[in-house]
Amino acid sequence: MNEMEEIEIVIVGGGICGLATALALHRKGIKSVVLEKSETLRATGAGITIRANGWCALHQLGVASNLRLTSLTVQGGKNISVASGKQQERPFEKGEIRCLRRSELIKGLAENLPPGTIHLGCQVLSITLDPLSSHSIIQLQNGRTIKAKVLIGCDGANSVVADFLGLKPVKFLSLSQVRGFTKYPSGHDFKNEIVQVIGGRSKIGRIPIDNKLVYWFATLKMNPKDVVAKDPELLQQMTLESIKGFPTKMLDMVKHSDRDSLSISRMKYQAPWDILLGSFRKGTVTVAGDAMHIMGPFLGQGGSVALEDAIILARCLAQKRHEIDIKTNGSQVIACKVGEALDQYVKERRMRLVQLSTQTYLTGILIKNPPLLVRFVCNILMKVLFSDSTAHSQYDCGCL
């Protein structure tokens, strides 16, 4: 039998949120270990939009300056109707918006972590609580057993840690999104703006990353029982089929896309009431990122909000760690102070997440093209609850 390892803070999941949380803790002088089930750090989804609140968090992490060198600033947006051909300027919030390669963001976070922080090929099989210390006992598929004083689940929509906490499972929309990159070796002539073309059952958008690379995303209405193709060639064909009759530039963009970059995912969300009522802490265990608040891509806030989680969680833990250092270093004191830190983190995040998830939820209903009365009510709620469209992106997660 393998000997049990003892680690102060374990983060499950080596995606954006997991790496950002580890880096935020590192900036506060706190060591952690990231357990990633894959053999390499992955960056599926091609690109990711980071809004002003996300850049505020990246600045706190000390990686914003280098990441800015890899992308252009988005300066506006417009929607184009296939049926009428009309163009409508999109309401555009103030503040910095850029689209990054996910791989660049993952790399930027990982390279700033101390050597040995990330452990690859570590899939969590089970989590139990030590009844004496309230520490987590983590059993890995490779035979390792770890006792963690603090366990943070950043392991996405299908989170093992969220299951341990008893959180409600994510729900699915009848929508899927295909994402990819298209390279223009001689340069493209697109403006630095988000352009979305909207048809009957589908929508496609594009955002330039730099002068030669464009990130695009196509939203397709699909029955939940539909089989989703994973083969890049089939994804490309399926996307082209869904946007027949769209502008030639959009069709050509998909035709000449980098097939290796293509991916598809069903849109998932957590209902606002599940976030409002969910218990996000048990003992010294909590969650962050998509494991806590997955939402559809309608607001483009998934990555930015996960970065906020990392900053606030690290700050709350660091404040209580100082109190632990000046008190008796007993296990009961540690567990109590960590619990207080996690409760403070959850308190700071909950209503922010409820507001974002409510807006995402209502937007998802509107996209489904509901009856006129439902559409009218949703639009009224959106105007009443979210009249200030800049509030979300101007949110300040504070200093580390």
TrEMBL record:
Transmembrane portions of the chain: none
Entry keyword tRNA-binding: no
Gene3D superfamilies the UniProt entry points to: FAD/NAD(P)-binding domain (3.50.50.60)
Pfam families: FAD_binding_3
Domain FAD-binding: 7-319
Residues forming coiled coils: none
Keywords assigned: Monooxygenase, Oxidoreductase
Oxidoreductase keyword on record: yes
PANTHER family for the chain: FAD/NAD(P)-BINDING OXIDOREDUCTASE FAMILY PROTEIN (PTHR45934), MONOOXYGENASE 1 (PTHR45934:SF2)
Family: Belongs to the 3-hydroxybenzoate 6-hydroxylase family.
Protein name (database record): FAD-binding domain-containing protein
Source organism of the structure: Quercus rubra
